[in-house]
Amino acid sequence: MKAAQFEHHEPTTVEEAVSLIESLDEPTILAGGQSLVPMMRFRLARPETVVDLNGIDELDYLQEADGYLKLGALARHADVEESSLIDRQYGSFADTAPLVADPQIRNRGTVVGSIAQSDPKGDWGTVLLAHEGEVVAHGPGGERTIPADEFFLLPYDNTLAEDELITEVRVPTSGDDEGSAYHKLKRKVGDYAMAGSAARVVLDGGRITDATVALTAVDITNVSVPDAADHLEGERPSGDLFKQAGELAAEHANPESDEHGSAEYKRNMVRVLTQRALADATERASNDGPAARYGTDQMAVGD
Amino acid sequence: MAEKDITLTVNGTDHELRVESRKLLVHAIREDLDLTGTHIGCDTGNCGACTVYKDGEAVKSCLLFAVQADGSEITTVEGMEDQPEAGMGNSDLHPIQEGFHEMHGLQCGYCTPGMIMAGKALLEENDDPTEHEIRENISGNLCRCTGYQNIVKSIEYAADVLNDREPPESPVEHEGASMETAPDGGVETDGGCTGPDLTREYPGGDQE
To answer: For residues A132 and A212, is the Cβ–Cβ distance under 8 A?
Structure first.
């Protein structure tokens, strides 16, 4: 089906975009469009005006600055996948990017758009939670930052105001003693997660000084698991410790049975995925080098 | 109506179009430019039959409004024969096209234009990919006939041509193989199985 008629606006600066969003009647923001365009074609979305961000060059960046890893609203999944900075320092981002949809969609779709979409099956929200990141929003009143754990409300709903635009997501820079990983279970290549788990650990003198665990597709939003984090902090990493953290994550998860698997199965997978993510994150925290060298290569295939 | 004037450079030719904002790039290519080699398979962004090569990367042209492609350079399957690599093999075709022809990379052919464009995007980045890299790079393209084996071989064939290696011999019999009409009107092939004679005249076929 064709999308309903709409006016297409192409601002070239953030300022212009913000004033357009304020002046237009319920505009929809288009970045990568890999979810929005099909939604418009099925008329699940019928915006009368669309503000297309693709002409705003100042939003196209992926860089470390001011103590953060910053991704502008036009950073595509493929940019994350191809970044050597990500590969060296941000294992969870390096794990996630190639597991999102397929190559063509990764060339267009954006990380910020995925977070704005706030689909509980989306991967990036979980990574953002695991890194205790922030969403940077611009509105008529200026800029504000929303911590990841206050951002997601319901499926496809978040605390962004109607007249606000997400210009950036950012996470604190990852030091050499930090490691992270994301493990995803999906039915087939390119699918949404049936369950996913991101873990981040900071090691100091053989002990975990800081840790986070967050989950995909097992609750009404992406969720973090504070109980697991508390259990890990101050301890020496071990298989038993990760098993207990995995069990806490499974208890925290609230999956629903569907055509892909029972709630019981998904809960069990949360346990397994969390253990694996913690093991990979710890390995990466203890070693310097590309993410693929340490931890599990989830893109590997067998014969 | 919300309409816009856009310019698309498709296969090296500039086109000025007036399109509705809601028109998808694939519809502009097929309906306004009459380049029907780019297919629409699924209408949901899953199948990849509409893949085109836009500004140096493969994109699904059903997930992009035509107005978003204003000013971009696009290659579709129709433009493959005009690429610099065309003619490097044993024909005037692009090595990927020749690969699909030689290695039986298609059966119904519906997914083929998208597969070829995804293959082009891969080979532009890496002209000698592994089988695994090929499989990953066509993971956004669905084929319901071949089981993908021969599609992978077709792209490997193109990589052989691009790297000056002798590509494997085609498993497909081409013209030149002797065919004689069997008594029942079918064709006896070397393997002894019979198929229809597509040139035979049928009674009542010439209706006036």
So the answer is: yes
What is the interface pTM, i.e. ipTM, of the complex?
0.94
Domains, chain A, ordered by start: 7-55 (3.30.43.10), 57-172 (3.30.465.10), 178-286 (3.30.390.50)
Nearest to B173 by CA among B147, B159, B193: B193
Q: Write the pLDDT tens digit of every residue in B69-100.
A: 999 999 999 999 999 999 999 999 999 999 99
- Are the Cβ atoms of A41 and B121 closer than 8 angstroms? no
DSSP state letter for A202: E
The Cα angle at residue B97 between residues B94 and B103, in degrees rounded to 5: 130
Residue A303 has what DSSP assignment?
-
Best probe of the A interface among B5, B46, B68, by most A CBs < 10 A, is B68
Q: How far apart are the first and last CA of chain A?
A: 41
Q: What are the tens digits of pLDDT across the range A87-118?
A: 999 999 999 999 999 999 999 999 999 999 99
**Using CA of residue B166, residue B171, residue B172, residue B176, what is the dihedral sign?**
positive
Please report the DSSP string for A108-134 in residue order.
H-BHHHHHHHT-TT-SHHHHHHHTT-E
pLDDT value of residue B178:
46
Q: Does domain B3-78 have CATH number 3.10.20.30?
A: yes
